Amino acid sequence: MKVLAAMSGGVDSAVAAARAVEAGHEVVGVHLALSRMPGTLRTGARGCCTIEDSMDAQRAANMIGIPYYVWDFSERFKADVVDDFVAEYSAGRTPNPCMRCNERIKFAALLEKAIALGFDAVCTGHYASIVLDENGNKELHRASAWAKDQSYVLGVLTAEQLEHAYFPLGDTPSKAEVRAEAAERGFSVASKPDSHDICFIPDGDTRGWLADRVGAETGDILDRNGDVIGSHEGAHAFTVGQRRGLRLGMPADDGKPRFVLEVRPKDNTVVVGPKEALAIAEIAGSRFTWAGQPQANPEVPFDVEVQIRAHADPVPAVAVLRDGELVITPETPLDGVAPGQTAVIYVGTRVLGQTTIDRTVSAVPVSA
After folding, report:
1. Quick count: other Cβ atoms within 10 Å of Cβ 32?
2. What are the sequence ranges of the domains in the chain?
3. Catalytic: 98?
4. 340 in a known ligand binding site
5. Which end of the chain is more exposed for a tag (fewer CB within 10 A), N or C?
6. Is domain 2-125+168-185 given the CATH code 3.40.50.620 in the classification?
7. Average pLDDT estimate for 236-257
8. 60-95 confidence digits (pLDDT tens)
9. Tens digit of pLDDT for each residue in 142-174?
10. Would residue 101 show up in a list of annotated catalytic residues for this protein?
């Protein structure tokens, strides 16, 4: 099999590429340049996709003995990830840029180019597994090491993309084993820390970064009854579940802290309320996809587990396709879910599909 190994410059993708070679595949390494101004991406241990990372990837490719290239995906990354991030926040939603990057860059733009060049698959260092069902169809499953499982961020992959995806680390028991293997191979990235945060926000100040692009305009902070209890300097700076930074001059009747429950960009208002009101009884989204073969008869309610963050625990739920939306009702309320987040549904270890959350229903009525 002819394999294109996406090499980020980290330890996982380096070991994945090496394993692909040892499995007998013809492998070519590629690093994605996602910014024409590398200084606008994180540097050092906290980042990804920087010049430093490109050099780390090249050193690993040289040691493995495979061809290595750097591909400029900066324009596509800006349009599909950065601009999308700004647009989502401007609409009062909480986007996941890593999810969009996997969906639109690594397994759309990159895979499209790879297939055009005659490659059979794209290999990455994600911790997830691909399993064949009884009919030979590919399914996406959790990795064997649940502590490092990354199937959530791959939930956006479609059946066609799974046909050309390759995850050599899926059966690895732990990240420590991958680091030990990298050290044995002599890779300089063996002890390199994992990347964190948003790569295209250099200093980690998301609020300031957004203010420069969306602008800051004073607006009202409302309680659940619509009464004005404070003001803010830009709705984009708030996310559902946030407690700090509200600076409310009027304390709650019960004296308890209040949390952001809703962001309304159209009228530049923020709604706050008690922590209990963050409990969500239902989520729904019209932008949904199936990972592999779709659910049979999705208009009939079916049992799943739902996960709303990369490191959240899955929660038993019932899902149904209704009026063009994937509607998910958790067995117990979810905490602090915001429109724009991604809900990934599982059946056992299998990733069944995902939806971008468009709306939520609170478990606590306004009069409570």
Report:
1. 24
2. 2-125+168-185, 216-270, 278-362
3. no
4. no
5. C
6. yes
7. 76
8. 999 999 999 999 998 999 999 999 998 888 887 888
9. 998 766 899 999 999 999 999 999 999 999 988
10. yes
